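To close the section, here is one more complete example, presented without commentary so you can practise reading it yourself. The ligand is xanthosine-5'-monophosphate.
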Amino acid sequence: MNSSGSFEGVLIVSFGGQYTHLIARRVRELNVYSEIVSYSEVSQKLIDELRPRAVILSGGPSSIYAENAPRVDSWLLELGLPVLGICYGHQLIASMIGGRVERGLGEYGKTEIEIMSMDPIFSGWNSKEIVWMSHRDYVATLPEDKAVILARSVETGYIAAFRLRNRPVYGVQFHPEVIHTPKGRRLLENFVIGIAKAQRNWVLGNIIDTIVEELRKTLPQGEKVLCAVSGGVDSTTTALLLKKAVGDRLVVVFVDHGLLREGEAEAVLNMLRNLGLNPIYIDSSKEFLRALKGVKDCEEKRRIIGELFAKIFKDIAESDKDIKWLAQGTTYPDVIESGFAPGADKIKSHHNVAGLPKWLGLKVVEPLRYLYKDEVRRIAIALGAPEDWAYRHPFPGPGLAVRIIGEVTEEKLKIVRKASKIVEEELMKTGLYRRVWQAFAVVGEDRWVGVEGDKRAVGYIVTIRIVESEDGMTADWSRVPYDVLEKIASRITREIPEVTMVTYAVTSKPPSTIEPC
Ligand code: XMP
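Output:
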């Protein structure tokens, strides 16, 4: 897989570390393309295809002595390409050159290191610096004829960084990609730009041109592409890129499944028309709500919604035989996560990744499959989308159906719509909206007894979920000020009489997911 076109980037080999995406993003922040592959995919053929300027070996949860520990072959170190091993990658390189890795005391969190031998990778670093560590195994010895020790931890004396004598191959025990290593970005810049001499050409204009060029190559003349737009940033940006690439051969459709937020259908239609996307508008809300009647199970709701969407696409494609393609707004984290975990449990079937039914008979094109959300947002703005809209929170394809626990009913839809609007309004007023990843209300089956005047009244419980995240893969609940929460809660119970209790969700992802179902 390679969409990089003219971009010679950095290849990041993943050993399953939780910060692998962060490494890729840090490299892209230097305006250098980066691509993640699993260690098991590394081959000479892949290197020839991708032509990376450098390779970074990520961290990972394994011990290199474990049975079936993930490894790469030593030829990777002999290509003359600059290589940087981080944490597990550092230990792996050490063991590949004959060093010894042992179980140690463990270093976790902020750790002081001392640079023993200055090297261009530490350009701009002082002789003592704070870095962020997270490891128990450590590199105990290195063959002196092959490697130079560059830095050690002050407290434990463990090797914190080394370099091979005859090649630009480095290992660092700490994590330069996390913000808790204050000079980490500088180290990555020293490696990627200073040592590997990568070109800083991953810039907006080039990215858009490359995607448009690729789309023109992929979509032959005479074939049309159907793009279902939800009004979200990903699908709308997909449509904008396609319009640039194939003009009138793009067919945009906006399906109202009746599970949208308050006022959303009109707002989306206006926005799409202003962007010149002129969508076909299909109001299928009755059909979706009928199909969901009595359905309580989350996965079943998702399946029904996905299938109904696919049926609508099929009808449109049958009415215009030139439609051969379906465009999807799949982004990079979705691609990596779904591709890397073949045996992993399905947590939720996001229907843009879970695959489309074979009977649809359309080929799939995914112009955003190499982009992170922040890159998508910047492209949207560059292509004329209003900035406020480009920074809207992600909204799941199955809409409010996944924010309603149990059966989707008119009453619950009304509650969740009104409550979510209140959450958004209050966050916008306080300027918190842009600082958080998602903020919404959830309603379920449970009830709480309330007091209305002098009477007891049994009402719904609404849960507020506000999370911070970089890409939705992991998330932390947002510590919004109590007075903002209080304002939200009191407005919800005042303005929605069916609600008698408001709760705030304080569990991160993992162990929870962001959406309740
Ligand atoms: P979870 O709930 O899995 O969500 O932590 C991670 C991110 O994905 C969004 N999400 C979905 N998006 N179809 C989508 O297009 C879905 O079925 C779906 N489920 C979750 C969620 O809003 C969050 O940003």
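Once you have examined the tokens, check your reading against these statements. Residues 204-390 form a domain with the Rossmann fold fold (CATH 3.40.50.620). The chain has three domains: 10-195, 204-390, 408-504.
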